[in-house]
Inverse folding.
């Protein structure tokens, strides 16, 4: 009577299903490894949240862009839109004198979950109520031609969706309005 080894006596699992499960685990691990834990609405421009790493602007251009944005936001946070346009130069000068060294603004901060393992954090430029409706405004300092505004609105659409979701959830409102305000053109576009 011949003696069989234990390895030949035990049933062998089907190798195909093991390899499939192993590959699925590898893919899931890679997805989780490259997915940033925190994102901002600005980092998602032109895309959706899932699987998108935030872009980074570096060097002197990022400093100038940030400073321009901070100053523009600070001016618009205090500007009374009923005042004559000719007075805005004075407000800009006062704001630059006051904010240039402080590097802060009074934006509305938020944090929200975007998926099982990711948080989005950001700051919303302006939330206001007009005619019993909640509005969100996002200031844009882009140098854009009037004929390219629609394309820019599409580019920033995911940012508008993120801000809208955050505000609707936080305030418990079923719907709200959103607009991009292109500062260099003096143009507000409802989204």
């Amino acid at each position: 009577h011949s003696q069989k080894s234990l390895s030949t006596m035990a049933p062998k699992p089907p190798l195909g299903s093991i390899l499939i499960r192993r590959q699925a685990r590898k893919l899931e691990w890679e997805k989780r490894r490259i997915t940033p834990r925190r994102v901002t609405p600005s980092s998602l421009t032109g895309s959706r949240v899932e699987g998108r790493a935030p872009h980074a602007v570096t060097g002197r251009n990022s400093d100038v862009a940030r400073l321009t944005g901070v100053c523009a936001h600070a001016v618009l946070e205090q500007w009374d839109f009923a005042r004559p346009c000719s007075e805005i130069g004075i407000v800009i000068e006062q704001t630059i004198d006051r904010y240039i060294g402080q590097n802060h603004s009074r934006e509305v901060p938020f944090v929200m979950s975007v998926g099982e393992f990711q948080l989005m954090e950001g700051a919303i430029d302006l939330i206001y109520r007009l005619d019993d409706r909640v509005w969100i405004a996002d200031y844009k300092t882009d140098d854009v031609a009037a004929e390219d505004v629609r394309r820019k609105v599409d580019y920033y659409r995911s940012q508008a969706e993120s801000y809208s979701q955050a505000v609707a959830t936080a305030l418990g409102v079923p719907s709200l309005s959103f607009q991009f305000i292109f500062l260099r053109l003096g143009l507000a576009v409802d989204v």
The first helix runs from residue 6 to 9.
